């Protein structure tokens, strides 16, 4: 069930002032509340549409404009959908701290207990992986061999989306290179078959222009493919699962022998 804070509706209908303040002093707060309400509505729409990254940014922006405790719950919900367990846990704790009488306190406390177990298990796993890595490095040092890469695959400095984007553009460029190559072949055939002297120059120019375009696509896609291979090495493949608590474990694989070589990805999502 999707639940959202109704703080702005309450604020618009039941506002109580301890004293009557000058209108000029009230306007900034009212303007911030209105901006926060509009931002909240945009965030809610993004959440319902499944655009959780955008929803998170907008919920946080609304909270900065009008720090109502209910928005912390909206932020926590969005972080939960993004599987960012440690941040979700922190947001839920802040929500209960800011709103001790929250009507959904029992539900939130139950979710906190689950998240605490998940975060603790993830921290233990990371600590175990780090200890195993340190032992492997020490063993490699004694054996005089190359030490293994750190846990997480590669150097873990780039998001997989970068590799996917570059690889996708390389594939598109390769498709365009094939198309332009076929067009070049057809234009060359037309040039050879042209017997009209007045058309020979135009046919040759068309074939030459298409050949130039084909070369641009070929070299561009080849360069992008090489960049994609490099990015595969520098990519943090665990980022596929959204960080803490993720079950994703993906890493690039490279192999070569006398019969050839292989490059790819292996793991699970």
Task: Walk me through the structure.
There is one protein chain. The protein is mainly alpha-helical and 269 residues long. The chain has two domains: 7-119, Tetratricopeptide repeat domain (Serine Threonine Protein Phosphatase 5, Tetratricopeptide repeat, Alpha Horseshoe), CATH 1.25.40; 160-268. The protein contains eight helices and two strands. Strands 1-2 form a two-stranded antiparallel ribbon. The protein is flat and about 90 Å long.
Number of helical elements: 8
Number of DSSP-assigned strands = 2
Give the overall form. flat
Q: What summary fits the major beta sheet? A: 2 strands, antiparallel
Instruction: Tell me the name of the CATH homologous superfamily of the largest domain.
Output: Tetratricopeptide repeat domain
What is the CATH-assigned architecture of the largest domain?
Alpha Horseshoe
Structural class: mainly alpha
The parts where pLDDT drops under 50 for at least 5 residues are: 6-27, 241-249
Please report the first level of CATH classification, the CATH class of the largest domain. Mainly Alpha
CATH topology of the largest domain: Serine Threonine Protein Phosphatase 5, Tetratricopeptide repeat
Gap from first CA to last CA: 25 Å
Summarize the amount of helix as a percent range: 55-70%
Topology pattern, helix = H, strand = E: HHHHHHHHEE
Main-sheet strand order equals 1-2
């Amino acid at each position: 069930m999707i639940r959202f804070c109704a703080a702005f509706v309450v604020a618009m209908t039941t506002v109580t002032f301890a004293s009557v303040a000058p209108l000029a002093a009230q306007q900034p707060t009212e303007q911030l509340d209105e901006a926060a309400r509009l931002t909240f509505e945009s965030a809610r729409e993004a959440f319902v549409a499944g655009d959780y990254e955008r929803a998170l940014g907008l919920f946080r922006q609304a909270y900065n404009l009008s720090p109502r405790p209910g928005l912390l719950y909206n932020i926590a919900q969005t972080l939960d959908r993004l599987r960012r367990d440690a941040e979700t846990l922190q947001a839920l704790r802040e929500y209960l701290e800011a709103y001790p009488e929250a009507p959904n306190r029992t539900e939130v406390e139950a979710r906190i207990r689950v998240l605490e177990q998940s975060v603790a298990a993830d921290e233990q796993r990371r600590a175990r992986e780090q200890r195993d890595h340190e032992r492997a490095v020490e063993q490699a040092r004694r054996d005089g061999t190359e030490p293994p890469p750190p846990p997480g695959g590669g150097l873990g400095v780039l998001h997989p989306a970068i590799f996917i984007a570059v690889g996708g553009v390389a594939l598109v460029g390769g498709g365009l290179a094939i198309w332009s190559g076929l067009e070049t072949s057809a234009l060359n055939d037309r040039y050879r078959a042209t017997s009209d002297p007045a058309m020979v120059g135009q046919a040759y120019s068309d074939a030459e222009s298409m050949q130039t375009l084909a070369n641009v696509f070929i070299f561009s896609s080849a360069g992008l493919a090489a960049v994609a291979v490099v990015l595969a090495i520098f990519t943090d493949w665990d980022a596929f699962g959204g960080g803490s608590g993720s079950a994703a474990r993906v890493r690039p694989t490279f192999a070569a022998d006398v019969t050839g070589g292989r490059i790819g990805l292996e793991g699970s999502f």
